Amino acid sequence: MSHVLTAVAWPYANGPRHIGHVSGFGVPADVFSRYMRMAGHDVLMVSGTDEHGTPILVQADNEGLTPIEAADKYNRIIVEDLVALGLSYDLFTRTTTGNHYAVVQEIFTALHDNGYILAKTTLGAISPSTGRTLPDRYIEGTCPICGYDGARGDQCDNCGNQLDPTDLIGPRSRINGETPKFVEEEHFFLDLPAFAETLGTWLDTRDGWRPNVVRFTRNLLDDLKPRAISRDLDWGVPVPLDGWRDRGDKRLYVWFDAVIGYLSASIEWARRSGDPEAWRQWWQDPQALSYYFMGKDNIVFHSEIWPAMLLGNNGGGAKGGKPGALGTMELPTEVVSSEFLTMEGRKFSSSRRVVIYVRDFLARYDADALRYFIAVAGPETQDTDFTWAEFVRRNNDELVAGWGNLVNRAVAMAAKNFGEIPAAADLQPEDTALLETTRAAFTTVGDLIARNRQKAAIGEAMRAVAAANKYVSESEPWKLKGEENKARQGTILHVTLQAVDDCKTLLAPFLPHSSQKIHEMLGGEGVFAPLPRIEEVDDLDGTGPIGTRGYPIITGDYTGVPAWESRPIHVGTPLAKPVPIFTKLDPSVVEEELARLEAGE
Ligand SMILES: [Zn+2]
């Protein structure tokens, strides 16, 4: 039994999140955490909203809000959506807390003291009208290489070349069209080349990572350059150095503070739990495991930059050093990256309204229907297209007609003929075969989830469902009439209900809402698949932008989860006529949703 840290990518709080976002990090991380808890591990699942950087300022301006008001607004929306999806965070917090600011500054100080932060003068773009830094991707102009007019300050989408904003011909701000001003700025850089060797050695010891992550990271390590970690901006964590600390116009770069969020959220969780040192069990024990979940656009931060920051804090790069004030931290066990979800063949885009927000989705469909689609057809190892036709087909054919129907007919027949869970008499070979199939699935499905092969894992669980459906169809218990057949009918229904109970457990990490319902339907008491809750808390320190005001966190009590094993059902448990677990969707849903998409609603 190990301490397992599930570090989930931090959603950016400049708007509501769409289903592409949650399919890349939220749902896979939750499936993993739920399984690991059932397998007996001590899981700490943390994340929060990422609330610094220019996009927040832009969104706040658009809505006539201050940055913290905009962050408050979207933090709350995101918190509500993630809870509605059933994501079992131990703590989902924010980057604007006093605790986060303090932890970020500790890590900066450790890196600085060990010599891994370099000061450099660079040319940066600012908006003449606001005086604010314009991030590279907010600058547009003509590509100096191919002449394409819509090239961005970070790259040209036409020829694919990486660019600097100063390369663009006729640069203009994508926010308001004005010509950016380039000014000399002093900034801090993380000395990534000083970690090249240690990172390479570490990467060699990583087993079982998805090939795309290993390949991508190897390429990164071949070409490490110092990376800017400060910005000319008045929104973010101040640089904790004399002469910088009180400057209103210099802040740490948003990505630098956001990756530290995994650590600061763990510390906040420990402080709130009553044992402020408890986080150390997940971060400082070499036997502890840590899994980081994200979309592929964030691999660089988790497989290269965050490990480098941890090494720098530990004094483990080419320049040596000693551990910072928080102590030595362990590097990630695994970086689990998903590919992208597209929608009806197009890239998700909030601005072009090719989007379906989590909230809108859950207003019309069940959370488990979305979770099922993501698990079975999500972008685990390749880009995947979400289509409404496929969503409706999988919901109706697999969830409703497969799993839902098995539950329904088993419970309905047992309730009608016995009013309770009947006893099993003489087990026939076909009975034992089914029971062995569902029992064996615990090993197969569990191993696959532990190795983050969730698509294969849910495939195996659904194979057990299919075996049970086949067993019922072949043994035809509804044809067994009269007293002389009662014992055999009872045996078949008992075996089927035991298979249903096993499948309910096997599917609990993927489909917690329906597994809980089935648990109750079979006479089970208490919480089987715990769900998260929103709690309104006060900031612990009152020293961040949140101040002393309250904010919503996601947390929950997941301590009583059932073990990952088959449990014998109890003969004589009363059964009532079942209610449908899943909702069958009318095929007209497809037309309606496509019309909504075209209308940009
Ligand atoms: Zn170009």
From TrEMBL:
Short sequence motif named 'HIGH' region, residue ranges: 11-21
Binding positions (Zn(2+)): 143, 146, 156, 159
Localisation: Cytoplasm
Enzyme kind, highest EC tier: ligase
Reactions that this protein is recorded to catalyse: tRNA(Met) + L-methionine + ATP = L-methionyl-tRNA(Met) + AMP + diphosphate
Motif placement: 'KMSKS' region: 347-351
Name of the protein: Methionine--tRNA ligase
Species: Actinorhabdospora filicis
